Amino acid sequence: MAEADPSIFAAMKAVPEREVRDEAALDALLKDVREPFLVRGLVKDWPLVQAGLVSNSAARAYLVERARPVQFAISLGPPAQGGRMFYDDDMAMNFRSGAGKLADIFAGFDKHEGQPDAPTAYLGSIDIKTHFDGVAEENPPPLGDRRPRHSIWIGNATRIAAHSDFPDNLACCAVGKRRFTLFPPDQFENLYLGPIDNTPAGRPVSMVDFHAPDFERFPRFADALSQAQRADMEPGDALFIPSMWWHHVEGLADFNILVNYWWRDVPSHANDPQVALNHAILALRDLPQRDREIWRDLFDHYVFDSKPENHDHIPAGKRGVLDPLDATTASRLRSFLLRMLNS
């Protein structure tokens, strides 16, 4: 993998480390803190972590023994791209996608491990509960009564462009080494985001190559770096990434496994805000400036600055979607939107 300019990362402040005695202490942190923090050794006793400390092959064997007979999606890139899963010069993806049984995929890792010209191989966001038997139960999330989505990320040396996620995220380094570079949510303009409808993995990503930033093309990236935090993770470490924090992710070893947990402290019937942004681009962005200003005021009234007095002149229980949403009214609103979009 291409070497980064070490001065860029050395100048960053480290993500704060926190001591966590038990799940109750972690739960209290997760409720009170809205900035990233790192917990060393939080999941060091996981069987997957222990297998990886024996060898990469032992970690792969642990997963193969528990893999279901289903197809695993994999992304493959040539050695020349240095592990960077990104765009090519035509803004198409610089990797190809495939699928296969996990044992066959891992045979490729065995074949190429340790070779400097190994192709990039990356299994991203694999749902643990649908692809494995027992892995979720044997390596439990230390998240109390939260019901997160369990995902596993497997690859050799890779670089994933900076992006953000809507749910909160606990990322656990199980095998190998990881480096996260994080930025507060308000740094999106300084990260020079790419398209929102043509992305490597569903979320817009920074167009800046962190290993060789072009400050002439991306001058505000220097401002983003002044706000950056770095977390270098060893097996067993866990990193909390709050919702909408931007993160650039690197797998630094020949073989790396990350397990992460996403959860949302919002009702299950709530939609992804990215859907609303996409619709706003379709419906509002190209209106005349005068009309956009009117709609901005309406959005503030109904969404961003919504207050009870904005609609308490309507009888309670008769306010439709202006009343608090529940699963039933959210489903009705979703059906209404689908009809409107298809009309």
UniProtKB/TrEMBL annotation:
Domain of life, per lineage: Bacteria
Pfam family, one: Cupin_8
Domain JmjC: 109-280
Xref: SUPFAM superfamilies: Clavaminate synthase-like
SMART domains: JmjC
Coiled coil: none
Name the UniProt record assigns to this protein: Cupin-like domain-containing protein
Organism (species): Qipengyuania gaetbuli
Taxonomic lineage: Bacteria, Pseudomonadati, Pseudomonadota, Alphaproteobacteria, Sphingomonadales
